[in-house]
């Protein structure tokens, strides 16, 4: 058994109640095996054992009152996973499925993703099992205030800088930042994803989706292809999905699917122009269900099915798949259906949307595969740029931020390709991204000595 297998086995034993965290550790560490031989200094310093252990886990209760005066108790989390190369950085997720294992998996992945962006950011993640769905704006406000009344003491612009994730968008960041500012009496870059008026960066809302599509374009270019004329399946209908769709449209592709946790719509004419505006209003203003799109535009709606179920069951032809909803949405049978559908590239907007078995199917069938921590790093990259702008007390133009984002996505792609080649896995972006991110963090950890 290799040393890395031993570390994985120990995590499986210690954290057996955290399947998503175990999955993430197994995915990353397995691909790090080529570093074991080349870097005996990492083995000796037990970097692999140290990197799977969070530096700090904060769990707290969040007590709030609904509109009827009833009291609710939720659980809040912040996992400060690794601060070797910069302040902890990573989003907050508000979703009923949130538990410690989910936050640890997200925080662990964030370490490598943040390192890849070329910016100085450590890895962290947080959230709550609070379900914002069906809550009034004032209930969400009271929850966010209560959440921040505890979180504020653990974060800071040079310590830990949270952002949004599932269930945490512009509205929630406004409430959270407002309460932070009130408690500490300071205007600082302690949260990213802020609105432009109070210190946010232009292009931050768009960044994950745009970055995903820039990364996809790099992957396609390596085989002499572009997005022009390609049919694209996107899952989700939230922040990442919306802006991925917008950028695909701008680059001449055709988006034929969107979904939410209730079902999937298929529009073979493309979700663009006025139809895309409708989705923005539906999801961000009215907070309605994607079914309404099918009703308005008279297109098929598949209740209870994911985009990948629909592709499998209806035999749709698709060139590119961009999963942008949630973890483990693409299973082995879905991946096999994507092969049959003629998919040339899968790039992950969501975190860990493909199971390990699904990834294997992509790899065995020559599908270009852009792993989440490289492909969706545009969001945290622009968060890093928001931190820089806050420190400088400046706000850059859309063009400046977009150009920087495009350049960062190019560099992430290049680093991943080069690391894959240098460590004997040419063309394997999963291995390349993991190794490139790991090397930066491991070298910093080594420099600090034993701590
Ligand atoms: P949003 O909350 O804006 O949207 C999430 C979308 O996915 C919604 O359409 C939601 O449907 C759907 N969804 C969520 N959970 C499930 C589920 N269990 N089953 C089926 N559908 C589900 O989140 P984001 O767009 O911000 O995030 C999407 C993914 O991208 C996540 O994996 C996130 O971690 C990742 N990501 C986000 C970044 C960002 O900048 N926002 C950065 C990097 C990664 P419904 O409304 O019905 O819940």
UniProtKB/TrEMBL annotation:
Residues 201-449 form the Glutamate/phenylalanine/leucine/valine/L-tryptophan dehydrogenase C-terminal domain. PROSITE patterns: GLFV_DEHYDROGENASE. Homohexamer. It comes from the Bacteria. Coiled coil: none annotated. Pfam families: ELFV_dehydrog, ELFV_dehydrog_N. It comes from candidate division WOR-3 bacterium. Belongs to the Glu/Leu/Phe/Val dehydrogenases family. GO terms for molecular function: glutamate dehydrogenase (NADP+) activity; nucleotide binding. Substrate binds at residues 89, 110, 113, 164, 383. The lineage of its organism: Bacteria, Bacteria division WOR-3. Keywords: NAD, Nucleotide-binding, Oxidoreductase. SMART domains: ELFV_dehydrog. The record marks 165 as: Important for catalysis. One of its GO terms (biological process) is glutamate biosynthetic process. PANTHER family: NADP-SPECIFIC GLUTAMATE DEHYDROGENASE 1-RELATED. GO terms for cellular component: cytosol. Gene3D superfamilies: Glutamate Dehydrogenase, chain A, domain 3, Leucine Dehydrogenase, chain A, domain 1, NAD(P)-binding Rossmann-like Domain. The active site is at residue 125. SUPFAM superfamilies: Aminoacid dehydrogenase-like, N-terminal domain, NAD(P)-binding Rossmann-fold domains. NAD(+) binds at residues 208, 239. This is Glutamate dehydrogenase.
């Amino acid at each position: 058994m290799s040393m890395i297998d031993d570390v994985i086995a120990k995590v499986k034993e210690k954290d057996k109640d955290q399947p998503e965290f175990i999955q993430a550790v197994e995915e990353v560490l397995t691909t790090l095996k080529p570093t074991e031989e080349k870097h005996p200094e990492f083995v000796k310093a037990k970097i692999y054992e140290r990197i799977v252990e969070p530096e700090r886990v904060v769990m707290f209760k969040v007590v709030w009152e609904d509109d009827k005066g009833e009291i609710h108790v939720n659980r809040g989390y912040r996992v400060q996973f690794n601060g070797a190369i910069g302040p902890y950085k990573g989003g907050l997720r508000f979703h009923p499925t949130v538990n410690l294992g989910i936050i640890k998996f997200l925080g662990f992945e964030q370490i490598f993703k943040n390192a890849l962006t070329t910016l100085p950011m450590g890895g962290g993640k947080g959230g709550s099992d609070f379900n914002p769905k069906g809550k009034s704006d004032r209930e969400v406000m009271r929850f966010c205030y209560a959440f921040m009344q505890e979180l504020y003491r653990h974060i800071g612009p040079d310590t830990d800088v949270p952002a949004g994730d599932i269930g945490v968008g512009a509205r929630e960041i406004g409430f959270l930042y407002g309460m932070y500012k009130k408690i500490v009496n300071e205007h600082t870059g302690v949260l990213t994803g802020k609105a432009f008026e109070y210190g946010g960066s232009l292009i931050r809302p768009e960044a994950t989706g745009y970055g995903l599509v820039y990364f996809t374009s790099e992957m396609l270019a390596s085989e002499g292809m572009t997005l022009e004329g390609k049919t694209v399946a996107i899952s989700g209908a939230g922040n990442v999905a919306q802006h991925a769709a917008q950028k695909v449209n701008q680059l001449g592709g055709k988006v034929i699917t969107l979904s939410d946790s209730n079902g999937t719509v298929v529009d073979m004419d493309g979700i663009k122009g006025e139809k895309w505006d409708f989705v923005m209003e539906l999801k961000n203003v009215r907070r309605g269900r994607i079914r309404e799109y099918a009703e308005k535009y008279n297109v098929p709606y598949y209740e209870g099915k994911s985009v990948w179920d629909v592709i499998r069951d209806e035999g749709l032809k698709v060139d590119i798949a961009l999963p942008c909803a949630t973890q483990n949405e693409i299973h082995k049978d879905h991946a096999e259906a994507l092969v049959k559908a003629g998919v040339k590239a899968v790039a992950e907007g969501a975190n860990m949307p493909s199971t390990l078995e699904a990834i294997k199917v992509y790899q065995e069938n020559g599908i270009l595969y852009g792993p989440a921590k490289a492909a969706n790093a545009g969001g945290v990259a622009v968060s890093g740029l928001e931190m820089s702008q806050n420190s400088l007390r400046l706000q850059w133009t859309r063009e400046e931020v977009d150009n920087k984002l495009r350049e960062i996505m190019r560099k992430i792609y290049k680093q991943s390709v080069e690391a894959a080649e240098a460590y004997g896995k040419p063309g394997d972006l999963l291995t390349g991204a993991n190794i490139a991110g790991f090397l930066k963090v491991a070298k910093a950890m080594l420099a600090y000595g034993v701590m």
